[in-house]
Amino acid sequence: MGGFAGNTGHDPHVLYTLSAVQILALFDKLDILDVGKVSSYVAGLQNEDGSFSGDMWGEVDTRFSYIAICCLSILKCLDKISVEKAVDYIVSCKNLDGGFGCTPGAESHAGQIFCCVGALAITGSLHHVDKDLLGWWLCERQVKSGGLNGRPEKLPDVCYSWWVLSSLIMIDRVHWIDKAKLVKFILDCQDLENGGISDRPDDAVDIFHTYFGVAGLSLLEYPGVKAIDPAYALPVDVINRILLTK
Amino acid sequence: MKPDRNKFSIEEPLSLSLDRSRDDFQPLSSTSERKMHGRPRKAYKPEEEAASASKAAKLRSLQTQFMSIHHHKIYTKEAIDLSRKLLEINPEAYTAWNYRKLAVEDTLSREESNQDLVKSILDEELKVVESALRQNFKSYGAWHHRKWVLSKGHSSVGNELRLLDKFQSLDSRNFHAWNYRRFAVELTNRSKQDELKYTEDIISKDFSNYSAWHNRSVLLSSLLARKAEGFTPNEKIPEEYKLVHDAIFTDEDDQSGWFYHLWLLDQTVNVETPLLTSSWPSHGSCINLSGGDGCLNDSSSSKLTTFCSDLGSFPLILYFDQPVSGVSSSTVAVDSELRGNEDLVWEPVSNKNSRVSCVWVARLNYMSSEPCFPKEYKVKVRIGNSPGIVSSRGCNFSTPYEFVFTAHVHDTVREDSQEVIVSWTDGFDIWDAQSKDLNFLVNLDQQMGLKWRQEAIEEEIELFRALSDSKIGKLTLARLLMAKAMISENGVKGVHYEEILELYSDLMVLDSSHYRYYKDEHSVALLHKVTSSTESLSRYLFQYRDINNSICLRLNNLSLSRIASVEKLLFVQMLDLSHNELHSTEGLEAMQLISCLNLSHNRIRSFSALDSLRHLKQLRVLDVSHNNIGEHSVDTTRYLCSSPLSNSEWTEDEVGRQMTSLVTKYWDAYFVLRDLDLKQLDIAGNVIAGDEFSSFVPQVVPKLVWLDGQKLRS
Questions:
Q1: Helix, strand or coil for residue A17?
Q2: Across the interface, do A152 and B210 touch by the CB < 8 Å criterion?
Q3: 3-state SS assignment for residue B681
Q4: Bridge partners of B700?
Q5: Minimum CA–CA partner of A59 in chain B
Q6: Which of A131, A217, B599, B641 supports an S-S bond with B608, CB 3.0-4.6 Å?
Q7: pTM listed for this prediction
């Protein structure tokens, strides 16, 4: 079929297909894939209006637009979809506060913003973003503790150190937050006895937040951490290797 | 009183995500996120570990059984009930939701005539969703399943709205519920006006509901756009200001109303129909044109703009107040006797994928084979006589506009191509500019409904002066004063800038986390001030003797962190921005006449930050010495630079073929520099500037004559 599931025996979905492709790209093992089949599975999920469904059951969300574009770009098969329509759909999800939601009219949320900005970045379409308006909305995610929340009047969370931070970097407005304070927040979320990073200081750790904490530190140029690409969430040298060679 | 949102996060019955003994644990997706938030860090006691392990074993057994029925396509009552058990414990088991859809379709295909059975089956699905949502009211899988069931044509929308009211009271910020509400409302054809009233009810109970404000903005902008009965901007916008004041003034730290207020300000200041802001050449001006590298020694021309180009053409620039498309020789008529301009091609100054821009350029040829020099040509430009120029929001450029300028074309004595090195320190004379030389266009009479806009801004200014002590008070006041300066008639302009600059300086201290946001706004206000009148701008304008008295704007040592007011600076040919705090050239692309640019001693971190310079076809001299190029591992303009990384097409040249590793290493320098036609480049004082890079550059820029003050070839 071409798609990947979350685990053996589960149904295929675009979410896990991207994860599979990202992992293989990381280890430079994309050649074990049947690129034609995988890219056709993903491309086949594009709808008439340019949006993408997650799987055959038709849930539409801009998360899936990002996933499809990111996946096909890594596989160098972006020409299998209508990029123009995909971009049009994403732009239709732009809100009056400069942010993006999961579907047209949906509230701006940092996770969705990352997906939309990332997709626009990968397709060379960032001119659709009002960088000053969105930049202000994003920089105001930094609360007094130095951490970032995902939308107004919510609690800060280390995973937003990725969603908000990478978005700010892609639109060149990251200087609008206090980077030192954010570094301190992320480091305060570590479990110094058992390792790992949690969503907030003194909460339980998990690999999800550990990843985003480390990725956030990379974007903040924390010493000793490899440079990560803000659009693909993979190391810069991996993406450069894949995309800068003809 | 703000409800305590933390109170509503439900304690997890199982610590699934932490059970290290599980091999086939439910894969991570953003839908699992709720399990991993807000859980206190604590060591597990042995009895807790044991309880957790036994629950995990039960769940694992359930999953194994489920996988079997799913793969064998078993849709008996017992099998379907097994999937319900699984989903009630773990609503994130997405394969189980898929299975249930298959089961429903299987039954429906056999029993569609039995309406009662169909109804009871779909009702059962809705019950399962509801109980799954009680487990996790943010489960994407559960909400989608509900939508899928509804698409089968069942359930009253009244039921759905009642369910939504329940969720609203549990968590008024649940975006799944709000999205589902939009979906349900669409099924009923409930009016936007009714939904607008709904948002007002929520806001009046609790102003601190960003989701309600967001929904209000969506509904209201739609009603205004289609000019619904009773929805005109001059009536509605002032009403909305009153509504949002409570949200801003009650709790000065609560952001719920901030962005709505900013949207109202945008609606107040920005007119829908696109207008022409400025042009080069400007109306009534006179320009001297000559070709090649020849020098015009006519001193009487020192008061006028002299334009020299080895391209034999000059750029005719149109600057609109908002991005537009449709500028072409059909919508813009250029009448003159300059030969060779019959089929003008208008290009937007924007990235390759976009046909929309504020700035449009056509190149007019002036070097023809006719030997009648010097000659004076009148050029008339008429914009918008035919429809076609449209804003990105779909509004037509409606009021036709025309301007006239004179071009003096001089023949040139072609001297030996003397590659003169440009010095930024001497050779400058003060320039006594007249206002018609500068392009100040006053378009305000074209604005519709100016009165209500000015009144609304005045009222807001008065109100916010009283709130001056808070961050949002100062920031909004600064924005209101900037807005006032933008929509008021000439003459009042110089007045407010000192106050605006002071407000941003206060904010840099008051809200130091966002210091650099306020710094950027301060730079914008400063540039608006500098360009607000001929008098203030003249202090920074000079003429450079060695290059035909080119007009040089010297804005060095002003702590500028950002470029602005370029629409007033289209006439500038040499620009000195050295000794500032710029990290990007964003905005400079409109200044199409620039031939010499000094960016030394700034904070430029990469060549990708110079991407906008690729639009400057006249650029020959560039100084980026003493910056931070090559110092940082994070590139904040990586995706704002046209390259294969943003899937831009590129034709491989010899350098690309022969020097692949250097092209990959210095990718942004390669893509940016190869599109520039530089004669002189300075890169010293940057980490990147070593032997390797310095020998790579001339390969990429073959016509380069001077590199870091050294002549490259004879």
A1: helix
A2: yes
A3: strand
A4: none
A5: B144
A6: B641
A7: 0.93
Q: Would you state the pLDDT for residue B510?
A: 96
B41:A221 CB<8 A: no
Residue in this structure with the two tokens 């996946």, named with its chain if needed:
A71
Q: How far is B26 from chain A (nearest CA, A)?
A: 8
CB-CB contact of B612 with B671 (8 Å): no
Give CB contacts under 8 A, 24+ apart, made by B475-483.
B475/B503, B475/B507, B476/B248, B476/B261, B477/B503, B478/B503, B478/B504, B478/B507, B478/B521, B478/B525, B479/B262, B479/B265, B480/B265, B482/B525, B482/B528, B483/B265, B483/B268, B483/B269, B483/B457
| Phi-psi sector, B708: left (phi>0), alpha (psi -120 to 50), beta | left
Residue in the block written with tokens 């029993």: B111
Interface test with B, best of A127, A212, A239 (most B CBs within 10 A): A127
Residue (of A57, A59, A85, A81) closest to A69 by Cα position: A81
ipTM of the complex: 0.96
**CA A104 remoteness from chain centre:** 19
Residue B487 banded pLDDT, cuts 50, 70, 90: confident
Residue B212 amino acid letter: A
Which among B29, B513, B638 has the least Cβ separation from residue A6?
B29
Residue A17, min C-alpha distance to chain B (Å) = 12
* Cβ within 8 Å, pair A9-B67: yes
Contact A8 B211 (CB under 8 A): no
pLDDT at B444 over 80: no
Residue B241 predicted with pLDDT over 60: yes
DSSP code for B595: -
Cβ atoms within 10 Å of A95's Cβ, excluding its own: 25
Query: Angle formed by the axes of helices A160-170 and A207-219, to 10°?
Result: 30
Interface test with B, best of A153, A202, A229 (most B CBs within 10 A): A153
Are residues B39 and A137, on separate chains, in Cβ contact within 8 Å?
no
In terms of CA atoms, which chain B residue is nearest residue A174?
B636
The whole-angstrom distance between A82's CA and the closest CA on chain B is: 14
- Reported as a pLDDT band with limits 50, 70 and 90, residue B399 is confident
Cα angle B275, B278, B283; round to 5: 115
CA distance A106 to chain B (A): 6
Task: Give the integer Cα–Cα distance in Å for B91 and A79.
Answer: 36
* Nearest chain A CA: its distance from B212 CA (Å): 9
